[in-house]
Amino acid sequence: MTNETQHLAGQISRFVYRNEETGYSVAHCALAGGGNAVLVGVFPQLAPGETIRAAGRWETDPRHGRQFRVDSYEPTRPDDAAAIARYLGSGLIKGIGPALAEAIVKHFGLKTFDVLDRQPKRLREVPGIGKQKAAAVVEAWGKVRDGREIGLLLQKAGASRQLAPRLLLELGPEALTIMKSDPFQLAGRVRGIGFLTADRIAGQLGFAPDDPARLRGGLVHAVEEMVADGNTAVSVADAVAGAVRLLGVAPEWIDPQVEGLIAAGRLTRETQNGDPVLSPPALAAAEKRLARRLRDIERGASRFRRIKEREAAAWVEKRLRLELSPEQREAVLAAFRRPLTVITGGPGTGKTTIVRAICEIGEALDHTVALAAPTGRAAKRLGESSGRIAKTVHRLLEINPRLNRFERHGNNPLEADLVVCDEASMLDVQLAAALTDAVGRGAHLVLVGDVDQLPSVGPGNVLGDLIDCPWVETRRLTRIYRQALGSRIVTNAHRIRDGLLPELAGGKDSDFFFIEEDDPEKLRELVVDLAARRLPQTYGFDPFLDIMVLAPMHRGEAGVARLNEALRDRLNPSGPALTIGERLYRLGDKVMQMANDYDNEIYNGDLGRVSRLDVEGRQLVVEFDGRPVTLATAALDDLTPAYAVSVHKSQGSEYPCVVAPLHTQHYLLLARNLLYTAVTRGKRLVVLCGSRRALERAVRNDEAQRRRTLLGQWLEKAGETPKRGATS
Q1: Which end of the chain is more exposed for a tag (fewer CB within 10 A), N or C?
Q2: Cα 538 vs. chain centroid, distance in angstroms?
Q3: Whole-structure pTM over 0.70, yes or no?
């Protein structure tokens, strides 16, 4: 096998295998210079009879022998009657079988393609083709023709042809028109196509650097990039500056595009402290809706009758066989005094106990209680700790994956009288808005979380903004339980939160260690040795099930990407593998789902192991919590190796053992809330390793990037709105 790109030309004679979903195919090709070849690769919308020029490389498969792996190709239409008939009758074009294909080619001969493209009404000249059949054939032909052109444009722009079916599916019959008239719209509407790919497509189509469509697309992308950092609003000045850097043009070219984008509804403009800011319309609407719904919940007439608080507290303490501290007791009772309550506290402060007590009292009052958390892992933990059914927020709201909407909302609210959402720091603005929409009239909502952790991966700072709002009932837990005081993990987490260095001198039985290593390459080797050998040997941890390596960022010698490579080479060095683009999946790999997949019921942050590979079918089977899920090529975009993950991705999870490298290569991301989040993920053992300077920087740096959000000002405005009767 050689890695040098080689070329061949020939005519597709037949397909041995084709995956309609992914486009992965195995085809026989009659070479132009004589002989035959087996082609493997992703080539959707090719059919027998077509001539192609392909670039790729020869390789030898242990089972199937010599074959040509296609990286890119350029098809040409068949130019003889027999090949045209074979192409049309191959099944690629819905509604045309071999017999009808023969009849069409017999009637129009070599002019068949010209008729289909320019005179489709003439199809009715063919015996057996009526008005409805002709219309169906023309529609199917249009999809194939547009798909081929879209695929070619994608390929020339350096993107995968495999995106063509997705683009047609998401944009419909107008896909090619949209692509040609304003390719920058693709970046916001088609998953897998970002602005840079759209810009390359535009270059292929001849768009000038100062074309208004390019300038508008660049400005929208600049806003979306800052939203990806967690902001819900971006100053106009920052957005314009971002677009200038991205596009390499003068600011005066960008400024005029702001009004046009606002008029077209692609951006909204508000004012914050006198500064004009821009937001994606969906985010702006979600923040306003969230503020209104929180006000409505807080002012609503409660379904709960007034309880005898002293008796209720004594009863639940007896039932749970524990004694609540005064602040815990107040937090529990607050959930029944007001329809809206926020409870926040660090590890060891008893949030789990409070949730159990709230559930017990609520159920004793004959009210229904619903428990939820933003992620599958957090919901599973909540269910285990409460002894009740807990769901992800998406499942609680009955997500409809086909329509991409929730079935529970204002017109079809949840039937629960009391909704408790744990890990509320992970709620982004849109999910929080959907949750509050579904809370029924008079029902209570309790949000529980640790505001000192990292905020949500998605945009917004919901929990922090609510705690800052004076009219939202907030209970902050500060006292650490006696049993938690024996844990260095807990006490050091609180020290870090308070801006103090963790206590590093620990004995043999300690659950918290720091190992110093300044050299980044040696640090990576140290992390790998800890996770793969030393900690499993010393403590009996399973390196796949019990240990998680958490890194501040993806890049760098001790970043997520290099750590994953090194840990896989150590823990899973050989065996069958499947390569998709630049990603390699090996049998037995530890992997993480990076986006919600409602069809397969796997969610952002779910961990699994690769249990089976289908190299020919370009798909694999992953075991998620003992449940096998088959994932084809398109779904693998959202599956990543997970021997090491970012601290952000660990939110809502707990692991028996956490290993966290800290180095000055991660300087920009070394912040107190990031270190605090990493430490609080560990249940039995936390090992920090790296440079002392990096550790000190993380503890000292409380100036973590402040998210710019508008929820605070909408909450303030909502609080000023006069009540209208009981529910406003």
Answers
A1: N
A2: 36
A3: yes
